[in-house]
Specification:
6 helices, 76% helix, single chain, globular
Length: 190
């Protein structure tokens, strides 16, 4: 289905769905809704959709001159590649991650810091994007604390917050696609 007006194409719809689906699946594991043994299922989704689709969306945002969208989608696309490679290499014993909990926690905290400063930029954007980034920096800091303190309950809280974040991202994508298809605001982004 070709869009008659290419100027209305919004790559955020692709980036948000790639981020949202991958985040929901991993967060369901972190929240304890799905077994930890299911983490390998996240790897191809993180590489193909969470990673690559967001990288593509970020590149398309460059063409639109959107610094925020470019930075967000390329950075979080790279995050999903990092996460997938960590699982893949660690799971195949190419990396010894047995003593890496505090370093993984520190990496997640750094992602939290990055997301916190990106959240500040959302004060000028839609309410949906504001809420996605609000719940994402909280998610990263909870997951970081869970790793740093070896506290599974905090990791579970991070998983639940990640579920909220992923669902908000899915809604954002849904709203962009629906509003674009109908040519009017059907679903508000705020």
């Amino acid at each position: 289905m070709a869009n008659e007006n290419a100027a209305q194409v919004n790559p955020a719809a692709l980036g948000l769905v790639g981020f949202g689906l991958t985040t929901v699946l991993l967060s369901a594991i972190n929240a304890g809704l799905l077994p930890a043994g299911g983490e390998p299922v996240v790897i191809p989704l993180a590489m193909a959709f969470g990673g690559t689709a967001q990288l593509l969306a970020g590149i398309f945002e460059v063409k639109l001159g959107n610094t925020f969208g470019m930075t967000a989608f390329i950075a979080y696309g790279a995050f999903w590649w990092w996460f997938a490679l960590l699982l893949l290499l660690g799971g195949n014993h190419l990396l010894d991650l047995s003593g890496a909990h505090s370093t993984i926690g520190a990496a997640l905290a750094l992602w939290g810091v990055f997301t916190l400063y990106m959240w500040v930029a959302t004060f000028k954007l839609s309410r949906a994007v504001f809420l996605i980034f609000l719940t994402l920096w909280i998610t990263f800091f909870l997951l970081a604390a869970g790793n740093l303190m070896a506290a599974p309950n905090i990791t579970h809280l991070g998983g639940w917050m990640g579920l909220v974040c992923g669902c908000l991202a899915l809604y954002g994508s849904f709203a962009i696609v629906t509003n674009s298809t109908f040519g009017k605001t059907v679903l508000p982004l705020g």
